[in-house]
């Protein structure tokens, strides 16, 4: 099997880095990202300076400010981070289609196996991506090159907050041996607690155990841990092209809101946008996914299926509302909402048997067609549903 | 309660009630069956709150009693029991002892008072007797049109039962639809008049009818009746009661009256195999195939941009102006599976009207299939 070359790019304290790009006054001072307005706000992200003072992710904001009283506190902007991630991703794609964003926190894996004749050795590619990030976006990523995702990720963790690391093929186990267990992704806190019972806190110590010994302590999980401490990870870098492209529209509330009429009004507008696009492409939606970002930085993702698939705004809104009911279970105001559809089918061409339902279907089609034509000619605001009027006063 | 029963006497009934007891309902006890021993017979009942079953079976009773027990568990025990004779005895605290000298189970039951009541069949119900196999076929021909689990419309969830008279001949009719096709099955072998649901729509849930099929033998007669809100199927020692659906069935008379149609006769098996071959290239997004009737030839074409194309011809008797129309081939295959005749008649009008299918010289079963837009 051909040895793999995986680059891991990690923009340290991604949220802070993005905020610093937006406001240069934040540079060289401790920054904490947390929803200040929330009563029990928790730290979403923090700068290296705040980290050095003892601030950690998930820590109550009040405690964090006790550790680092001079820190500037900013509310989280998930939409801004998502946009920045997409910008980063665009700069990686020219080097390999096998690029994977695991989250919205500045981590990207790129599989550059077999691209040496095109772009040079993997460290050169990593350098070039890093300079593109620095010059075009003002972000300075840590990078590492290794033969798999696990080792590449550990390597960037090791050099954080800045630098680079190359782990050559065959050196994975030696590289991991002296490291503490918490640096290895996949070894959970409960695993570490269990290892602690046996006075094991370094990878090398655990690597000395046989598979049978690990099985005895962890059961089925023993096999996974056996591979982790040896730097064995066969998981592929998920191709971006393999992920289904969908339709997605989002909205950032000017002021965080918990008003049902406002949230539903925005949801209806997003539904209209998706519906219009679906009808133009003669598609019907099989599902709708909803992302809610709350004031305290928490994100909830829920979806609802459309059975049978639908394309008119009224039916789409019912599905979207169901997804909203599933997602909006917290008594915290909403900052950002995103509605997406990634499962479609071609619009059903099956004729209805009964004249009554045929007429009803045709009536709905004609109405939606007329609405689309008016909006196309005079703009989307020319024809509005009463439901969206609440947005004017909000 | 204490009785002895032969394995094969009880195994068959336990197997048939599994469909009822495995359905989710609001009451956990509906996963159980009720067993009562009385008058030298054991009485077994099961319900999912929509469909109820009752049966009486001869047994060697030592003492009377009543208990409910998990249906699946007792079925597994009886199915795998090594001997033909099984002793069943109720102990204290709703514990049931099942077994003999070598194999013994003690399983916990529930209080019989909590078991939902199954509507009693009154003496004044007017039943008509009809051939068991005839009823089974009627049900099979109509419930082939399934309703999806998300469906809420009563006329799609249920099958309409009708009693009509044509030329002074009584006909029992079942009609089913999913909004895209319709299936009509008639039964002519009725001796008595049956008019106790003349003015109301009788919609029997398809789910309940699926259970009825399991209890219908290929020989003998069964009685059916409608009383209050229930459809009742009665055999000598077994009764099934199904709660009717509330709702209306759309007017279908106009759909069945064919106008200016062209009649095409095809050989059933070759036509079915042709459709099967052509449906290989259909998918969830591209369900349709195109039928072209032209110059004594039927051509079926399937074109799926994701998969490819296919085409097949068949010789037929057709001399009219060409007709090109798209259909979901699966609807035809479903229908052909229930036509007994070797020759099948297709009655086609155009690409906007439905196609009628029935067996040669047999209009007791007609399937109506709407086309797709090309």
Detailed description of the structure:
The complex is a heterodimer of chains A (about 400) and B (about 375). Chain A has helices at about 15-20, 50, 60-65, 80-90, 115-120, 120-135, 150-160, 170-175, 190-195, 205, 210-220, 220-230, 260-280, 315-325, 355-380, 390-394, and strands at about 5-10, 30-35, 45, 70-75, 100, 105-110, 140-145, 165, 245-255, 285-295, 300-310, 335-340, 345. Chain A is about 40% helix and about 20% strand. With about 400 residues, chain A is of the alpha+beta class. Chain A folds into three domains: about 15-80, MutS, DNA mismatch repair protein, domain I; about 80-230, 2-Layer Sandwich (Alpha-Beta Plaits); about 245-394, Dna Ligase, domain 1, CATH 3.30.1490.100. Chain A contains 16 helices and 13 strands. The mean pLDDT of chain A is about 85. With about 375 residues, chain B is an alpha+beta fold. Chain B has three domains: about 1-115, DNA Polymerase III, Chain A, domain 2 (Roll), CATH 3.10.150; about 130-250, DNA Polymerase III, Chain A, domain 2 (Roll); about 260-370, DNA Polymerase III, Chain A, domain 2 (Roll). Helices cover about 20% and strands about 40% of the residues of chain B. In chain B, the strands form four sheets. Chain B has an eight-stranded antiparallel beta sheet. In chain B, helix 1 runs antiparallel to helix 2 (about 70-80) and helix 1 (about 5-20) packs antiparallel against helix 5 (about 205-215). The longest helix of chain B is centred in the first third of the chain and has 15 residues, at about 5-20. Chain B is elongated and about 80 Å long. The interface of A and B includes residues 345 and 351 of A.
